[in-house]
Amino acid sequence: MLTDALSIAIAELEEQQVADLIKERLDSGVSPLEIVNSLQQGMAEAGGKFETGEYFLGELIMCGEIMQDSMVILEPLLSGSNAEYKGNIVMGTVKGDIHDLGKNIVVMLLKGSGYNVIDLGVDVSKEKFIEAIKESKAPLVGMSVLLTGCQESMKEIIEGIRAAGLTTKVLIGGNYIDQVVKDYVGADYSAQAATDGVKIADEIFA
Amino acid sequence: MNEKEMLYQKRLERYTTAMDCGKPDMVPVAFGIGEWIVKYTGTTLQEIYYDLDKSNRIVSEMLPGLDFDIFKGGPSLWWPPMFDALGSKLYKFPGMGVDENSTFQFNEQEYMKADDYDEFIASPTEWLVNHYLPNISTELENPGSYRSTIALIKGAAAFAMQGGIMGAAWAKWTVEHGIVGQGTGFTKAPFDTLGDALRGMKGVLLDLRRRPDKVLAACDAITPHNVNCSLAGAGADTRFPCFAPLHRGAYPFLNPKQWDTFYWPSLKATIEGMWAKGKRMLFYAEGDWTPYLEKIAELPDKSIIFQIDTTDPKKAKEILGGRFCLQGGVPTTLLTYGTPEKVKEHVKRTFDELACDGGFILDTGGVVMGDAKKENALAMIEAAREYGVY
Predict the structure, then answer these.
(1) Cys staple from B263: which of A86, A88, A108, B249, with CB 3.0 to 4.6 Å?
(2) B34 in reach of chain A (CB within 8 A)
(3) Position A83 pLDDT exceeds 70
């Protein structure tokens, strides 16, 4: 149960109330990091509501939008404070596919749960994935694909990551993803719902 | 009547009987020759998209060996030269923005801004011409300019050329191979017109909370245009259904209240408006529509063909069966990851579960892309003939 008014406000998608509370708290000297923590708790609650079927994607996107607008204010104030991430995760939509709605929702939820997400965008090549994984030493990479015609490209990227000697866990997601596709492309995990990504990340980073 | 004309009549009879929820001599099967042919014809997707003659020739060569009833068309859904002439930002085409063998994709943006609602609602088509076209096309940025006028002429010419080429190809396929086309005309759910093309997914979902009245007013303003579009684009044909790809109404984008309030009333009004003029909709329900089947059942009997993609097929049969024709049954991914044996088994099971008392058309659930295997696609139509006799 949430008790913090700001956490409740973002979980209930009360956009104006969130903005007012952030301003109020900053003015009264609350640390930006503490404010971000409150927002993250509220987002986690919204994710929980999605899992129980109370919230749909529309609500998750709204919640992400409020978070994003809040971070525009809070992020510049955070530098210097000891923001601790749970870990690095590389994300991207695979080469040939430019769909980003699903990926953006998952990125938003992961960020909201305290992960540092390196979002490579859409139409991401094997080389870019490998480079980002090497650079960030991310233990988890998330790949999104909507078009069935691009599942082959996902397979090639995963093969490329393995050929480069990287043992990063691979999580895949997308509308037509199932166990068969997961096995075919050689992924470690597959996500069926928007909130699965966070659950799997929590498992890996535990 | 020659042999091909007789074949055409037989297939047409099967299709129309199923559309009206009846039981034909055998289960009609719908088939498209999709992007997968690229792998088997030594060509690239870019060539298939840009060179309509080549694409149509490949289809013409394949048709004699295939026995199905309803043709969904060849691999060229769009002809990119029209978009290129306008400098369109809407799509990326094979070899133009994506790899030469990657399929076309829609570049979703907020082409209409939140501030544009009032002007749009006042006169949708006027707003489209004055603001939307300049927003989506680099060549039309300055309406009335020399460059813009030339681009409009070129774009219109390309549109007409494509219509001419495709019309001739369909006429040839009908006469020489006795094939029946799936549909005539194209329309959308008003909420999808707004959410897909104008505001984008994120834009429209945020609008539901920030300016719900504008969303409703916009959907109402779009509805008569979408009714008209279904018939105007079809040359007033009412024998065949109008294709309507439905997107944002799939589970779980909208919560049930939003679905009931924002998605459904204007789509229902569009379908009822079409049906009043005798035009049926191919309700192409991409994704999962299981939670909304009861609402869909409120439509006038036979006014749609319901496409089953990832909707629960048994529930669809239970709730819509008998009153609406159902189409689908073969998961799209089965054509990629299955084997001919698995496809055949699946078709047999699908017939037992969904086709028994008629009103059913066998088809793949969603759009079949370049990943499908030819042997699986062929196994689907072979199995349809083997097990489909009533």
Answers:
(1) B249
(2) no
(3) no
